[in-house]
Specification:
Layout (H helix, E strand, L loop, with lengths): L1 E7 L3 E9 L3 E10 L3 E2 L5 E2 L2 H15 L10 E8 L5 E3 L18 H9 L4 E2 L2 E2 H11 L9 H11 L1 H4 L4 E3 L1 H10 L3 E3 H5 L4 E2 L6 E2 L1 H6 L9 E3 L4 E4 L2 H7 L6 E3 L2 E2 H8 L8 E5 L3 E7 L4 E2 L4 E5 L6 E7 L3 H22 L4 H5 L4 H9 L10 E3 L17 E3 L7 H26 L5 E5 L6 H11 L2 E5 L5 H13 L6 H6 L3 E5 L6 H26 L2
Helix pairs in contact: 2-4, 10-16, 11-14, 13-14, 14-15
Length: 531
């Protein structure tokens, strides 16, 4: 059975053609980028037409790479970035550019929504916080949360807000564009923190919506991640080069589906992801919450299950930054001076692989250089939109390789911090699945094992884990797979990395310094970066 999944990231879509039989196999893929518009007021926006152009071009490109015909496609689904705000009219047309999950302009709306009150906890109105926790064991405690972006539009663009029919996330918008049906998947609804998770009360909580000043009429009908959302319309089919009527399934967000695609489909299994962002997630059969560390249980793609979720806002994005601003500016000259031949370069899949190889020449601990990966604020275990990245302990003898390695180590230190906070609240697994683009690198995989002290497992195509999860949602929806346990059997382990005890001392030392850097600099970050 052939299916198409659109893996919709922050800056590009990878359109994947999978063959699902007794295993799940990536037949071919095609990628295209789109803009990420960073505004001076803290806004971060994207363009729905750029999204659609990327989707249509990559779909057509698939069939130039394979003998599979468009008529053989049995289903379509999406795995997307989450917590964006897409406001649409009755025809499902976006009324303004979507506000990306990185958007943090709604400072005043956050203050008005939950920041004001005589009694506060973590800077939030205690009454509103407790009311939210009662309903779904979480709350909108970040300026980047969708409800404050929604309120920002209401306050600053009233002429647009008057035209709003429904409020969607990225996945929901793409479903509407493909099917004409305007719905939200339950994981997307939960990400607004207006969803009620209590037994027998699952769905939108109108009381919470009114507390935050959200119009309940703007909240769409809900579907499960494995439900059929509709069929491909004639217009969408024409744009995509596919037959009309192909079933389109709910799919879900990247954090929802990545763990499933990693093979963590049994309660208690933990996975770590390094892509543009990063996270630590453990699958649970109940919710847990830790307001002190900004962690909570969010709806998983498997009905009745939750992901205990702790996020690092910028992970792989930090490595992209170091590539662009520290490595790439001189890498051409570096390669030329080293007389690197074309054959030598061809053995690396990308510059990232080359850089991973280079940093492996630096000993663990990066000669004492420590990097903080908070390059667009941070969510867990502390919520601070003013936090920023920095290199600590630079010396005259510090080289670029030291700095580049310290970026990878800093990401892993923060993930260890998240893992320790989770482990203090719940039982995490001794062996962890590692997915995302970061898991392509054996250097990073071993570094993660050494820093966390856990065995690390990787899978084939780890960067496609979210897309694999969306493909499994199609299989569950079509009854090709009868249970989550069956899904796990389709995702074999590729490699296992064991912690190297020789590296424990230096990593433990640097980690303790890393932990202290935020506390020591929180006031400095606010002085420099407060909007």
């Amino acid at each position: 059975m052939y299916v198409i999944v659109y893996d919709f990231g922050t800056s590009a879509v990878k359109t994947c053609l999978f063959d699902i039989t007794t295993s799940i196999k990536l037949v071919c893929d095609s990628s295209a980028g789109y803009g990420l518009y960073v505004l001076e007021n803290g806004g971060v926006e994207q363009d729905t037409e750029e999204w659609w152009k990327a989707i249509t071009s990559t779909t057509k490109d698939l069939f130039t790479k394979t003998d599979v015909k468009p008529s053989e496609i049995a289903g379509i689904s999406f795995c997307t970035q989450m917590q964006s705000v897409v406001l649409v009219d009755k025809n499902g047309k976006a009324l303004r550019r979507p506000m990306n999950f990185l958007d943090n302009r709604a400072v005043n709306e956050f203050e008005d929504g939950i920041g004001k009150g005589l009694i506060k906890f973590s800077g939030c109105n205690l009454f509103k916080l407790l009311r939210n926790l009662l309903v779904n064991k979480t709350a909108s405690m970040s300026v980047k949360d969708p409800v404050y972006k929604y309120k920002w539009v209401e306050k600053n663009e009233p002429e647009i807000f008057e035209q709003v029919y429904k409020w969607l996330d990225v996945n929901d918008y793409l479903i509407a564009r493909c099917t004409g049906n305007i719905v939200r998947t339950v994981d997307s609804a939960f990400a607004t923190f207006l969803y009620d998770t209590r037994k027998g009360k699952e769905g939108w909580n109108v009381g919470l919506a009114k507390m935050y000043g959200v119009n309940p009429a703007h909240l769409p009908d809900l579907i499960e991640c494995s439900d059929k959302a509709g069929k491909l319309t004639a217009e969408a089919a024409s744009d995509l080069g596919l037959p009309e009527g192909i079933p389109v399934f709910g799919g879900g967000g990247d954090a929802t589906l990545t763990g499933i695609g990693a093979g963590c489909t049994k309660v208690g299994q933990t996975h770590i992801y390094i892509g543009t962002s990063g996270w630590v997630i453990t699958l649970m059969d109940h919710q847990a919450v830790d307001p002190m560390n900004s962690m909570t249980g969010v709806i998983a793609g498997l009905k009745g299950c939750y992901h205990y979720y702790a996020e690092l806002e910028t992970a792989g994005k930090c490595f992209e930054w170091v590539k662009d601003h520290i490595a790439l500016d001189e890498v051409g000259l570096y390669l030329k001076n080293k007389n690197v031949s074309e054959d030598h370069e061809s053995k690396y899949k990308s510059l990232y692989d080359y850089l991973s190889e280079e940093v492996s020449k630096v000993p663990p601990g990066a000669h004492g250089v420590i990097f903080t990966p908070w390059m667009h604020g941070n969510r867990s275990p502390f919520e601070d939109s003013c936090a920023a990245g920095m290199f600590f302990n630079l010396k005259l003898e510090t080289g670029k390789r030291d700095m580049i390695r310290s970026v990878l180590e800093g990401i892993c230190y923060h993930l260890r911090w998240l893992l320790e906070c989770e482990s203090a609240k719940i039982k995490t697994s001794d062996t962890i699945r590692f997915v995302g683009g970061g898991a392509l690198s054996p250097v990073t995989s071993q570094m993660l094992a050494d820093i966390t002290g856990r065995d690390i497992e990787t899978i084939d195509e780890p960067q496609e884990a979210g897309a694999i999860g969306a493909a499994l949602m199609i299989a569950l929806g079509m009854k090709i797979i009868d249970s989550p346990e069956t899904a796990q059997n389709l995702i074999p382990i590729k490699a296992v990395y064991h912690p190297n005890p020789d590296n424990r001392e230096v990593y433990d030392r640097n980690y303790q310094v890393f932990r202290r850097l935020y506390k020591s600099n929180a006031k400095n970050f606010k002085s420099l970066n407060r909007v």
